[in-house]
Amino acid sequence: METPKIVNPETNKAVLITGASSGIGKSCALELDRLGYQVLAGVRNPEDGKALTEIASERLTFLIIDICDRTNISSAVNTVAQLVGDRGLYGLVNNAGIAIGAPLEFIPIPELRQQLEVNVIGQVAITQALLPQIRQAKGRVVNIGSISGRIAFPFMSAYCASKFALAALTDGLRMELKPWGIKVVLIEPGTIQTPIWEKSIKFADSLISKMPQPLYSQLYGTATENMRNAVLKEGSIIAKPEEVAAAVAIALTAKKPKTRYLVGDKIYLKAIFALMPDRLRNWMILKEIGIN
Q: What are the boundaries of each domain within the chain?
């Protein structure tokens, strides 16, 4: 990894973004760089980091960050401290995440643990590690949640559970950190055109190939195929990650940011949908994907 560049601490606020290799994280990194922040882009693959630095200003530095690796987190925190100095870290954007889609009955427990490890435990781990520097800057924590943190969908139960949990953690942390003036914001995108859904589909196909046959096909074959097509269709036509990046920028710059920002096409209708009686909402979802 190349030696990070030190930026004049009096002219830039530093923001760290996890999962900046692609999709929402990459868009956030580029947007905040454009706005003049010192961006610390967390990636797992050095090649992704180098590719990002080639299209950004010299303010942007990539760091190798695996939020599920305590040793790696400790090393990254030390590097951040060297880069930001006495300023502290103004912003942490917790974006890294994965999506596992399959019937809950057949998801291997190790895979369920991994879903929660990345989307929940990892978010807490990196936040805990960086809070002293965030407190120093009287900074902000921005968590990338999802409308799936309000509405559970069939065959996405594990992913939805992780986003429900992240929403609760965000609300609780916001109250805990209020005495220090640290703002904690939740971004709730709808379906965004991002590689996470393509990766999720491929992973789901891999899981399904290992499931007991013909039992799996008899129980869930048609239903999961309908859901798969719905996810692919939505993921290709709905909002772009740049819209999420714009919301993150507002969350970091607004004097009094909202506690939550909904992002995406017709997202407020989906938020209202979440308030419907459970049975009515369940019936509408099942009808949409062709399950009786």
A: 14-288
